[in-house]
Design brief:
- The chain is of the alpha/beta class and about 400 residues long.
- It has three domains: about 170 residues, SPOUT methyltransferase, trefoil knot domain (Alpha/beta knot, 3-Layer(aba) Sandwich), CATH 3.40.1280.10; about 60 residues, tRNA(m1g37)methyltransferase, domain 2 (Trp Operon Repressor, Chain A, Orthogonal Bundle), CATH 1.10.1270.20; about 160 residues, Gcn5-related N-acetyltransferase (GNAT) (Aminopeptidase, 3-Layer(aba) Sandwich), CATH 3.40.630.30.
- It has eleven helices and 17 strands.
- The strands form four sheets. An eight-stranded mixed sheet has the order 10-11-12-13-14-15-17-16, sandwiched between helices. Strands 2-1-6-5-7 form a five-stranded parallel sheet.
- Helix 2 runs parallel beside helix 4 and helix 3 crosses helix 5.
- The longest helix is centred in the middle third of the chain and has 19 residues.
- The structure holds adenine (ADE).
- Adenine binds next to strand 5.
Length: about 400
């Protein structure tokens, strides 16, 4: 990946020579080039700013040096004809950087960062880049606070994006079990010694981690992730879902505490199917332990209205199918069927798919014509032939737009 950074403080970007990003540069995986905006000025003082039209405090970055700097980048497109960077302008008024956006930007071949200072860059520079140069321009914010300029933000962005570029992090497995990769924060980690004397207290590693019981360790870690997310970032567990007629509903990632009610809903929703066509199907007779284990494999959401669990859906990527987002167990309490909750939950589950997913898949009973009609309306089409899941069922697919 090529990365250009335009700044009036090139020295600020020196840390990009260190650690994994520095190594990736030396290995030729990242081609990072830092440019001094003042090299594109023509006066003795190398002026890059002036007073704002309309009055107000502070100074604004002048358009001409920026135009010349961007033109120089475009002209140096040694990647060949038609190569254009995606221009990222760090700023507190932009889209917030998160892991989804970092993953999206890591797919680009060429990113250019324009570091603003003072009160910002003359707005016509953005128009010039998008309309005259035809570049995609995005303002991206690190968070809801104000920095003195874009340089610190670029350091953070290049690290967050760069580490997702193949070859930058030696062991790609270490990228999977991380905070924000699947909507939960990371579990706490410990290393030797198992018993550590801090000078006044002897502190122990949680015994389960020394047990050698991998299933128990996975269970403990998952519970820690949920507890930590609930305590530090409840907003991540708690997106909102508005369904006309049902109002503003409480939508959360399911926890083991939801399992008994989920079991009741599962039985209510699938009892007919089991009686009529699929006595083989385990869903409605799964145990608490099986449902709880599923919460680790799938991201499962539950919807409540005034405390009552009225719906649920789950989704995941399956191993070996990186571009397919499986959606399952779409359930609505029987008395609320037809109110639009199913449609809203399905759209929500689709919206949770990682950026690089290209298709949605689900599975339903071969004879469940009402379900199939519902999915057809939502853009799904039955895959002819045997289902991958079970012969009594059909698989349905919808390409992501
Ligand atoms: N420049 C100034 N404040 C910023 C922020 N919050 N994020 C990105 N760039 C900035």
């Amino acid at each position: 990946m090529r990365i250009d950074v335009i700044t009036i403080f090139p020295d600020y970007l020196a840390p990009l020579e260190l650690s994994l990003i520095g190594k990736a540069r030396r290995d030729g995986v990242l081609d990072v080039r830092v440019h001094d905006l003042r090299d594109f000025t023509h006066d003795r003082h190398r002026t890059v700013d002036d007073t704002p039209f309309g009055g107000g405090a502070g100074m604004v970055m002048k358009p001409q040096p920026w135009k010349e700097a961007l033109d120089a980048l475009g002209a140096a497109a040694d990647g060949g004809e038609g190569m254009r960077p995606r221009l990222i302008v760090p700023g507190p008024s932009g889209r917030r950087l998160d892991q989804t956006l970092a993953r999206e930007l890591a797919q680009e071949e060429w990113l250019a960062f324009a570091c603003g200072r003072y009160e910002g860059i003359d707005e016509r520079v953005y128009e010039y880049a998008s309309e005259s140069l035809g570049w995609q321009v995005d303002v991206v914010s690190l968070g809801d606070y104000v920095l003195n300029g874009g340089e610190v933000a670029v350091l953070a962005m290049v690290e967050a994006i760069g580490r997702l570029v193949p070859g930058v992090v030696g062991n790609p497995e270490s990228l999977v079990e991380e905070s924000h990769e699947d909507g939960l924060l990371e579990y706490p980690v410990y290393t030797k010694p198992a018993s550590w004397d801090d000078g006044s207290v002897v502190r122990e590693v949680p015994p389960v981690l020394l047990s050698g019981d991998h299933a128990a360790i996975a269970r403990w870690r998952h519970e820690q992730r949920l507890a930590r997310t609930a305590q530090r970032r409840p907003d991540l567990l708690h997106p909102s879902l508005v369904v006309e007629g049902l109002g503003d509903l409480d939508l959360r990632l399911a926890t083991p505490a939801d399992v008994p009610e989920l079991m009741v809903l599962t039985r209510a929703c699938w009892i007919e199917e089991v009686a009529e066509v699929a006595p083989h199907w385990a869903g409605p007779v799964e145990t608490v332990a099986e449902h709880t284990a599923d919460l680790r494999e799938w991201r499962t959401w539950v919807v409540r209205s005034h405390g009552r669990l009225i719906g649920s859906v789950r989704a995941r990527r399956k191993p070996g199918e990186p571009h397919r987002w499986w959606i399952g167990r779409l359930m609505v309490a029987p008395d609320l069927a037809g109110e639009g909750l199913g449609r809203a939950l399905l759209a929500f589950a689709e919206g949770q798919a990682p950026e690089d997913v290209t298709e949605f898949w689900l599975n339903t009973g071969r004879s469940r014509t009402r379900n199939q009609r519902f999915y057809r309306k939502a853009g799904y089409r039955v895959i002819p032939g045997e289902s991958e899941v079970h012969p009594m069922t059909v698989d349905l697919r919808k390409p992501r737009r």
